Task: structure prediction
Amino acid sequence: MHLGSLEDRRARNNEIKLVTAALYEAKVKDEEILRVLMKVCNADREEATNAFRNEKFMLYPCRALYQYLILEKGFEEHDADVLIHSKAKRALASNRELSKLSPAKLYDAINK
Result:
């Protein structure tokens, strides 16, 4: 029974993460994203807010940087992953303002 509930929790968290990412990338307004998460994913306000903040300040900037590294800078996938995990996540976690930068400017900022 415990294993089933763990799997259910992971599936639910993954659903919330995917819905949040899709709505954020579609440039849906912040409050609307929260409303949809609470209604469709049955998330409470705190859970919806946490998922939204994680998407806005960490996940989306990392995805955008990853695409930039591969498509614009010619990085190999592995090298892009290493940079994201070793530098970008730490930098974004310590400075939310970096999430507002374009991928090119974010790359420059974390490589100073």
DSSP finds five helices and no strands in the chain. The chain has one domain: 2-110. Residues 2-110 form one domain. The mean pLDDT is 95.
